[in-house]
Amino acid sequence: MVKATETVLEIDLGALEHNFRYLKGRLNPETRFLGVVKAFAYGSDSVTIAKKLETLGVDYLAVAYVKEGVVLRDAGIRTPILVLHPLPVSFDEMIERCLEPSLYSRKILLEFISAAQKQGQHKYPVHLKFNTGLNRLGFSIEDVTYLAEKLNGEKALKVVSILSHLAASEDLDEKAFTQTQIKSFENIASEVDKNLDTKPFRHLLNTSGIINYPESQYDMVRSGIGLYGFGNEAKIDAQLRPVAILKTVISQIHTIASGESIGYNRALITQSPKVTATLPIGHADGIGRQYGNEKAYVTIMGKKAPIIGNVCMDMIMVDITDINCHEGDEVIVFGEKHSADSFARGAKTISYELLTGISKRVKRKIIAE
């Protein structure tokens, strides 16, 4: 790979393919695979990622909101797209772009039926979301009779799947809770089969569910973070490859005397002489203030350079006192050897937040191999 000459987020499609095949390899051959590409494909590039997944044979894609699905359709993506959190204001546009809603409440159900009827739809594909313990979105098992009353004989819609979402599948200390969720989902599925005049397929597992509860893969699984190189546990992370690699360069090097301050609010007063490097990346690029004051580090010449002082909007300063480097040298913010997960942990957050927070002003560079 060419060394960075500016702040750039490299998107490695070879790593994406590797992760996809690894996760698929843990499934039964007939199990369908949904790739989650919401939030700009976890901060990378949703169109590029979706196109690659389409060539790899993914069965479904998922986004959070309709506007994300519209971007994919406008880019020529033809794979079925599930909208996980649709809102009524976008129903007409959703139908125009053949996006499939996850319906999660009585209000949303009735409003989508009305929108589909007005547009003269016949058997428009919809998905029913059930709450099994995450307590975020979803119908309850007590709603199944109501759903049957509204949907049986309704020609505008066709229920193609039911789904739920696990709350703690990555945490084996919560295994009993997860197994309770799985049992609840099975009870819901049984009631749906008894009451609805269609038999929808089922999907429950997220990335950590694929790893820890493969016996409950049902008809399809949904993977987000795993596709981007993170399995929520070290032994799985070792089998995956990060898709996103954030790089920058050294803009300027300073020699700071003992007793001087560094950065805004004089957050660091040096106790001994230091050499610092200023980098062209800051909280406007997604590296928040929580990473300052040695909560995280970057890598220069293979060595750790802690972030010192407060993170600025467009810059950070790092300690290079013991690193032989020069202005213009490449800096790895996170990548394969220093992962986004380990970078995030230093500030007591998670890779999801770090990845999805990388600003759109950071240049994306696609690595095709």
From TrEMBL:
GO terms for biological process: D-alanine biosynthetic process. GO terms for cellular component: cytosol. Catalyzes the interconversion of L-alanine and D-alanine. May also act on other amino acids. Substrate binds at residues 136, 313. This is Alanine racemase. GO terms for molecular function: alanine racemase activity; pyridoxal phosphate binding. InterPro entries: Ala_racemase, Ala_racemase/Decarboxylase_C, Ala_racemase_C, Ala_racemase_N, PLP-binding_barrel. It comes from the Bacteria. Its EC number is 5.1.1.1. Pathway: Amino-acid biosynthesis; D-alanine biosynthesis; D-alanine from L-alanine: step 1/1. Belongs to the alanine racemase family. Its cofactor is pyridoxal 5'-phosphate. The modification N6-(pyridoxal phosphate)lysine is found at residue 38. Residues 243-367 form the Alanine racemase C-terminal domain. The gene is alr. The active site is at 38 (proton acceptor), 264 (proton acceptor). Pfam families: Ala_racemase_C (PF00842), Ala_racemase_N (PF01168). It catalyses: L-alanine = D-alanine. Keywords: Isomerase, Pyridoxal phosphate. It comes from Pricia antarctica.
